[in-house]
Amino acid sequence: AHLDRIRETEDDFGSFITVTDDLALTTAKDVDDRRARGEDLHALAGVPIALKDLVVTEGVRTTAASKILENWVPPYESTVHLKVKAAGLPVLGKTNLDEFAMGSTTEHSAFGTTRNPWNLDHVPGGSSGGAAAALAGFQAPLSVGTDTGGSVRQPAAFTGTVGVKPTYGSISRYGIIAMASSLDQVGPMGRSVADAAALHGLLAGHDPLDSTSLPDPVADFVSIAKNGSLKGKKLGVIKQLIGDGYEAGVTAAFTAALDVAAAAGAEIVEVDCPAISYALDAYYLIMPSEVSSNLARYDGMRYGLRVEPETGPVTAETVMSATRAAGFGAEVKRRIILGTYALSAGYYDAYYGSAQKIRTLVQRDFAKAFASADVLVSPTAPTTALRFGAESASDPMALYLGDVATLPANLAGIPGLSLPAGLSDGLPVGFQILAPAREDARMYAVAGPLE
Ligand code: GLN
Predict the structure, then answer these.
(1) Torsion-angle region of residue 232: left (phi > 0), alpha (psi -120 to 50) or beta?
(2) Which helix (H) or strand (E) covers residue 23, if one does?
(3) Closest ligand 1 atom to the C-alpha of 147?
(4) How far apart are the first and last CA of the chain?
(5) What's the CA-to-centroid distance between 29 and ligand 1, angstroms?
(6) 16: which residues sit within 8 A by CB, 6+ positions away?
(7) Which of 108, 172, 194, 405 could form a disulfide with 210 if both were Cys (CB 3.0 to 4.6 A apart)?
(8) Residues within a 6 A CB radius of ligand 1
């Protein structure tokens, strides 16, 4: 049924880069056989899923939405896909994204445009825009995204779905194509809190193949979401993430959600996180610095695209240069240049070093705020889904500003969840819940009853 739905709607939504019919049907058949034999199956066995095309899938083309990996078929498996396969979830395909996850609209893809199922004139958000549109368009009931500065939570907000950025290190990054390694985290996405919680439970857990993987046991997020209560819970509204710069319709929907929480017994308090005012600046130095280093591996020699120069000698350097010029899109090049500059001798202390200090201040602000609130809350994004054209990819600075509410969680390594909080002018608004690191369960205890 989901494959049929994809066939019927894909011309409109453009959620997928690759649809894997055969893989999905083979897995579904296998699960049926195992069920018929009376085998003990995972609760999600047989539930179809879509994977952002940044998740490495052995034997299935994985592109990162870049020309440089256009025909790359990975020879190894990511831990995420391994877990999905072992639990018997049929993989419907690989979803569209901004190239190497750099962007907020999914327009920076070398594989076409994804549209917001709520209104095809609007972007689905990004970078996990395909994963979010697949959910909102009922092409898939579950999907996997990645979140480096908001790429799961913001598209979830723009498409009226639920997106989770777990604590840094809680889901393995082994086989997730790297953008900025100290910020990247895999994110479960669904149409309800319980669905996202179930997928989170499947994907989380220690992985010796990821040196930043946490050893923590995985909580039962589904029952925590179902049995949670708002009574007596302190919700801390982050002063720096409301008011100026937020659309009136977004603020209205956010405030209405706070009223619902208060009516259910929650206590609403205000918290002050002054360093958040500098978080965006720090992110847009640290992230491109790590990008410039991570993307050095696309050299035209080891794998992916290889382009030889049209004239002159063919050397390692000229092949590298011709390959990267042809293979990377404009946004990726912009960030590599920014990052290389920030890391260069003479500027390192002024830019990268200062940004790391701000990162520490953001962490301290959060720690202080959590002393007076169980969870922190904010709108997920300052606007609803942007309209294609004038409002979107044309102005990189304006788009970077849209990440203001999501990227502090990545800088601090703490978990964040976005759930729908009604509509503004017919487009969904997201409500963000943040919890202390390794306390992901707390988000579900609030999100469950609030939903
Ligand atoms: N929009 C942010 C950026 O462009 C976040 C990207 C992400 O989380 N992958 O960097």
Answers:
(1) left
(2) helix 21-36
(3) 8
(4) 27
(5) 37
(6) 6, 10, 50, 92, 93, 94, 95, 96, 130, 134, 139
(7) 172
(8) 101-104, 127, 147-151, 179, 287, 403
Domain 2-225 -> CATH class: alpha beta
What are the beta bridge partners of residue 91? 49
CB-based contact 2:48 (threshold 8 Å): yes
Q: Residue 52 catalytic?
A: yes
pLDDT digits (tens, 9 = 90+) for 194-205: 999 999 999 999
The amino acid occupying position 170 is: S
Threshold 0.95, pTM exceeds: yes
pLDDT tens digits, residue range 371-414?
A: 999 999 999 999 999 999 866 666 788 888 899 999 999 999 99
Q: Which sequence spans correspond to the domains of the chain?
A: 2-225
pLDDT in tens, 377-387: 999 999 999 99
State the ipTM, two decimals.
0.98
Q: State in Å: Cα 344 to ligand 1 middle.
A: 23
DSSP string across 364-404: HHHHHHHTS-SEEEEESSSSSPPBSSTTTTT-HHHHHHTTT
215: pLDDT confidence band, cut at 50, 70 and 90?
Answer: very high
φ, ψ of residue 29 in degrees (nearest 5): -65, -40
**pLDDT exceeds 90 at position 265:** yes
Handedness of CA 76, 79, 80, 83 (dihedral sign): positive
127 catalytic per annotation: yes
Question: In angstroms, rounded to a whole number, what is the distance separating the alpha carbons of residues 436 and 115?
Answer: 34
- Active-site entry in 127, 172, 378, 392: 127
Query: What pLDDT does residue 370 have?
Result: 98
Q: What is the distance between the alpha carbons of residues 318 and 311, in angstroms, rounded to a whole number?
A: 10
C-alpha distance from residue 279 to each of 251, 357, 430 (Å):
21, 10, 20
